[in-house]
Automatic annotation (TrEMBL):
GO biological process, one term: fatty acid metabolic process
SUPFAM superfamilies: ClpP/crotonase
Organism whose genome encodes this protein: Azospirillum baldaniorum
Keywords for the protein's UniProt record, in alphabetical order: Fatty acid metabolism, Lipid metabolism, Lyase, Transit peptide
Keyword Metal-binding belongs to the record: no
Family as reported in the entry's similarity comment: Belongs to the enoyl-CoA hydratase/isomerase family.
Role according to the record: May play a role in fatty acid biosynthesis and insulin sensitivity.
Single GO molecular function: hydro-lyase activity
Cited InterPro entries: ClpP/crotonase-like_dom_sf, Enoyl-CoA_hydra/iso, Enoyl-CoA_hydra_C, Mitochondrial_ECH-domain
Protein name: Enoyl-CoA hydratase domain-containing protein 3, mitochondrial
Any one Pfam family match given in the protein's UniProt record, by short name: ECH_1
Length: 268
């Protein structure tokens, strides 16, 4: 759970950042709005991720939410306040860029979900490289219930879970529990709420102990090969492994393994 009281008020940052032991934790900080993805919040998160991508000291990123929810999706009040085609187009382009950034920054990104994650909030969970949730967390793509099909969340959801499971969530719009989210592959594990911080910290710590170069190579390769057919994927992966073998960190890691000592990464 998030035990740290959120900073609330007009002057409070929309995204809180804490760095520790190579892990940057970014906390969505609109608890009064269930961390709905306003234009401002998406902009603040985009800026943090862009900065982290260039920061070689950060090995892993954790996304969390302040208050009772992880993220309730787009800010519907903000959207309805400006019912203009250009504004809607700009909003969804901004959101798509944000989701692509989560996938494309060099560091693995972990979603830590303690409460509801709905619509674009569910999209954010599906987009993250790993996701852990409290056993009380719930997930939904409920846009169909209000006449707005979750088309952009569908992109991430349909790539994270099976086709039938994705369509059931999209067509019914029902909340699903943590156990079901694990079963369909939306999240990696569901744990008791009082264990969530420890589980995420452990996973992020293990990632942060790896070669940052290897993590960046692997993450980029994963998302590129998954969109290729099998023959093209193997050809691409073979090229990636060849380049990886020529890296100093690969040489160090293999030598350390053969010599039965801990590796010392240089990030090259």
């Amino acid at each position: 759970m998030n035990d740290t009281p959120p900073l609330i008020g007009d002057d409070a940052p929309l995204v809180l950042r804490e760095d520790r032991d190579g892990v940057a934790t970014l906390t969505l900080n609109r608890p009064q709005a269930r961390n709905a993805l306003s234009v401002g919040l998406m902009g603040a998160l985009q800026a943090e991720l862009d900065t982290i991508h260039q920061d070689s000291t950060v090995r892993a990123v954790v996304l969390a939410g302040a208050g009772p929810a992880f993220c309730a999706g787009h800010d519907l009040k903000e959207m309805r306040a400006n019912p203009d085609r250009a504004a809607y187009e700009s909003l969804f382009v901004q959101c798509s860029k944000l989701m692509l950034t989560v996938s494309r920054i060099r560091q693995p990104v972990i979603a830590k979900v303690h409460g509801i994650a709905t619509a674009a909030g569910c999209q954010l969970v599906a987009t993250c490289d790993l996701a852990y949730c409290a056993d009380t967390a719930r997930f939904a793509t409920p846009g169909v219930n209000i006449g707005l099909f979750c088309s952009t969340p569908m992109v991430a959801l349909s790539r994270a879970v099976g086709r039938k499971a994705a369509m059931e969530m999209l067509l019914l719009g029902d909340l699903i529990g943590a156990e079901e989210a694990v079963r369909i592959g939306l999240v990696n594990r569901a744990v008791p709420a009082d264990r969530l911080d420890a589980v995420v910290t452990e996973a992020a710590g293990k990632i942060a102990a790896k070669s940052p170069l290897t993590l960046a190579i692997g993450k980029e390769a994963f998302y590129r090969q998954i969109e290729l057919d099998v023959e093209e994927a193997y050809a691409y992966a073979a090229r990636v492994m060849t380049e990886n073998m020529l890296a100093r960190d690969a040489e160090e890691g293999i030598d350390a393994f053969l010599q039965k000592r801990p590796p010392v990464w240089c990030g090259q």
